[in-house]
Amino acid sequence: MRKTIYQQNNPAILTGFWCAEALFGPRFLRRLPEDMAGQKYTAEQIQVLEGLEPVRKRPGMYIGSTDARGLHHLVYEIVDNSIDEAMAGHATSILITLEEDGSVSVEDNGRGIPVDIHPTTKRSALETVLTTLHAGGKFGGDDSGYKVSGGLHGVGSSVVNALSIKMRAEVYRDGTLYVQEYKRGKPTMDVKKSGKTDKKGTKINFMPDEEIFDTIEFSMDFLMTRLRQQAYLTRGVTIAMIDARKKRPSEDQKHPRLYRFHFEGGISAYVRHLNESKETIGEPIWFEKDTPDGFVEVALQYTQAFQEHVVSFANNIHTSEGGHHMTGFKAAITRTVNAYARSFGLLKEKEENLTADDVREGLTAVISVRLKEPQFEGQTKSKLGNAEMKTAVETVVNEKLSAYLEEHPGEAKDIIAKCMLAARARLAARAARDSVIRKGALEGMTLPGKLADCSDKDPANCELFIVEGDSAGGSAKQGRKREFQAILPLKGKILNVEQARLDKMLANTEIKALIIALGMGIGEAKDIGKLRYHRIVIMTDADVDGAHIRTLLLTLFYRYYPELIEGGFLYIAQPPLYKIQKGKDIRYAFTDAEKMNTLKEWGVTAKDTEEAEPSEEAEEKEIGADLTTEAEQKAPKKARVNIQRYKGLGEMNPEQLWDTTLDPTNRIMLKVTMEDAEKADATFTTLMGSEVAPRRKFIQTHAKAVKNLDI
Ligand code: 0R9
Predict the structure, then answer these.
(1) If DSSP codes are grouped into helix, strand and coil, which group holds residue 160?
(2) Which residues on adjacent β-strands are paired with residue 186?
(3) Can you tell me the mean pLDDT for 273-292?
(4) In angstroms, rounded to a whole number, what is the distance separating the alpha carbons of residues 121 and 114?
């Protein structure tokens, strides 16, 4: 939909869109410009490209995957069309409803999708855009405007239709309600007038197809992050979410049923939100400017934190790999801060310039650019490739930030002081690192004594298990396959890196051992090419201490090795919670539900079970009572069932640890992703940072949701 058509970058070598996607990924297809000013649309302007068959055949190529991530993309695709309408100045609010029956509705109050008849297809514009792949409107030639929003895959509503068991479109236009319904992308009726209305806009309701998706359960939790982000980027638009489902996933039960995002401050409010738990320096600085190459908008604010947090967007698409707009921003910040510090005598003649890292320590910024033909590159196609945006952003930031600093000398002084503090800390950290390197450690020359390394030296085959405690470490060392699995036991809690600079970190034995084992160095000297393992697995106990150690390790990786998360190298092991044994039959259960299923399958009664832990008794009795029929009670006695609840990894013998947690053919591991980087960032800052009040609030809010608190 979205008034766009797709163009192949090199049509000569391609035969069709889905071939292009297969060969080069979805971003290879780029959108053609469109009219932002909202020129009057007529049906003739729709470009008809192709049918929907390929979508159902190879859904992953259009929405990335058919797991929960792909499922949620369906919603983003529809919402993006509403955002386009809002950006064009015709819609002010968007409502997303998770309906009682499990379907989703998205409604906007824009002009409504046109319903007039398309001259080629002899069908309405509405039907054409919802049933034709890559169909969309095109207005006033290729240079008349540009696309403003866009999902990860940018494939449009017809793809959502194709992957839905049913869809219903309602258009409120010219006082009339128009309706059309579809099944798996095919209309089941013509567009029909269905009465009068005083509303205007479009409503799309769809039920994802269970045949296609692994799960069709939506997560409010998941959707919120992205919808909030879109609301920040689209200043003044209201995005509301209603959860009308009877049965809600447990994660969602902690949320109210109604959310409403509306930010008059736009990205300035976004920066404020990102800094919620941080001690800030002055108010967010905000500016925007239209340049011949595109529109540039920036908001930034310094904090007393050590980390930088700069997020960038191009046409509302999160460019997690950065790109030219990011490069321009970084260059301008360094130049402007140094120029100001020099001209106002804050940086003495004999002092060196502040480095790029110094001026970004504690900096939070949002960069949003809009341009006519965005080119997305990089591993995940989330790096802006338009070189002209470097100059555009650099020029705007140089001009506007210098003006701000000159007009606000008080704030300017505080900012420069923070940057100079960072410079001094950097020099101290460098000295510390140099001394560690001189002693022959960091680059892996001397691997730590407690690391049981693997024999294979090809990182692609190698796994590093970071294990909590020496006893679990011992089991793991015996249970592992030494060819490709290395074990690094960690003693107790590692240092909280959220509150420490690099020099202090490097003085910490446990962290130093981990850095050396990874082999890629840290800080300025980091080189991912030297990473010694392509699977790094955090393996901690399933109790509160384990969770704490896991969080500390995740903080370390998130802050100092984000590329390992982005590259998909970081995992969390999932050891089982229970061992259930009946005679020679041994099963492992990773959740309480799995344990129940096994017991059910075995037709087990309370008197048939032996619990390794007395505290389990009550629960098992209950299971017995539920499952025992009179007939069963009279039946001959079955073999007794033994249930062992693992409190810690140390309770597993090497063989059990291999079977359940180490064996690649059997184990379950969670891959850590950056999907929720912002949320994680905020949580890390709240839980691990120096401000006490937000931490207290977080704990009070989430305490009720904690089950099985193990103390
Ligand atoms: C609920 C989700 N909303 C949408 O999918 C949606 C698409 C859309 C739209 C237009 C207005 N609102 C919309 N909501 C629109 C209208 C007009 C011109 N361009 C766009 C007009 O009245 O002149 N459309 C997006 C693409 C198209 N409509 C179409 F042109 F391809 F049909």
Answers:
(1) helix
(2) 183
(3) 94
(4) 15
Which pLDDT score, from 0 to 100, does residue 512 have? 86
User: Quick check: helix, strand or coil at residue 36?
Assistant: coil
* Reported confidence tier of residue 509, pLDDT bands at 50, 70, 90: confident
For the chain, domains (ranges, CATH) are 2-45 (no CATH), 54-261 (3.30.565.10), 267-426 (3.30.230.10), 452-575+671-677 (3.40.50.670), 591-625+635-643 (no CATH)
pLDDT above 70 as % of the chain? 77
CB contact set of 135 (below 8 Å; sequence gap of 6+): 1, 5, 46, 47, 48, 49, 128, 129, 156, 158
Which atom number of ligand 1 is nearest to the Cα of residue 82?
A: 3
Beta bridge partners of 311: 366
Computed over its alpha carbons, how large is the radius of gyration of the chain? 28
Cβ atoms within 10 Å, residue 407: 9
* Residue minimizing CA distance to atom 21 of ligand 1: 41
Residues 664-695 pLDDT 10s:
998 888 888 876 555 666 676 666 666 667 66
User: What whole-number distance in Å separates Cα of residue 61 and Cα of residue 54?
Assistant: 9
Most distant CA atoms of the chain, gap in Å: 95
- Mean model confidence pLDDT for the chain: 81
Residue 633 has pLDDT above 80, yes or no: no
- Centroid of ligand 1 to alpha carbon of 136 (angstroms): 9
Best residue among 2, 31, 76, 111 to mutate for probing ligand 1's pocket (most ligand atoms within 8 Å of CB) is: 111
DSSP 557-595: HHHH-HHHHHTT-EEEE---SEEEEETTEEEEESSHHHH
Cα 112 to averaged position of ligand 1 atoms, centre (Å): 6
The token pair that represents 191 in the structure block: 């567009």
Q: List residues near ligand 1 (CB under 6 A).
A: 1-3, 40-41, 46, 78, 81-82, 85, 106-108, 110-114, 125, 129, 136-137, 157, 202-204
Q: Give all strands (DSSP E) within 636-710, no chain letters.
A: 641-645, 669-671
Ligand 1, atom 19: closest residue by C-alpha: 41
Residue 289 or residue 469, greater confidence? 289
Nearest 5°: CA angle at 471, between 465 and 475? Answer: 60
By most ligand atoms within 8 Å of CB, the mutation choice from 5, 6, 81, 134 for ligand 1 is 81
206 alpha carbon to ligand 1 midpoint, in Å? 17
pLDDT score of 165: 97
* The residue type at 364: T
Q: Which of 139-153, 334-348, 524-538 shows the lowest per-residue confidence on average (mean pLDDT)?
A: 139-153
Catalytic residues: 468, 541, 543, 545
Q: For position 45, what pLDDT does the model report?
A: 52
CA atoms of 480 and 474, how far apart (whole Å): 10
First to last CA, the chain: 54
In this predicted structure, what is the pLDDT of residue 142?
34
Distance 2 CA to ligand 1 centre (A): 6
pLDDT of residue 104: 98
C-alpha 180 to ligand 1 mean position (Å):
15
Give the DSSP letter string of 183-249. ETTEESS--EEEEE-S--EEEEEEEE-TTT-S-----HHHHHHHHHHHHHHSTT-EEEEEE--SS--
Q: Which atom of ligand 1 is nearest to the CA of 78?
A: 2
List pLDDT tens digits, range 385-401: 999 999 999 999 999 99
Name the residue with the closest Cα to ligand 1, atom 10: 113
User: What number is the average pLDDT over the span 537-542?
Assistant: 89
Measured in angstroms, how far is the CA atom of residue 146 from the centroid of ligand 1? 15
Is pLDDT above 70 for 198? yes
Instruction: For residue 638, name the pLDDT band (cuts at 50, 70, 90).
Output: low
Q: Would you list the DSSP string of 393-427?
A: HHHHHHHHHHHHHHH-HHHHHHHHHHHHHHHHHHH
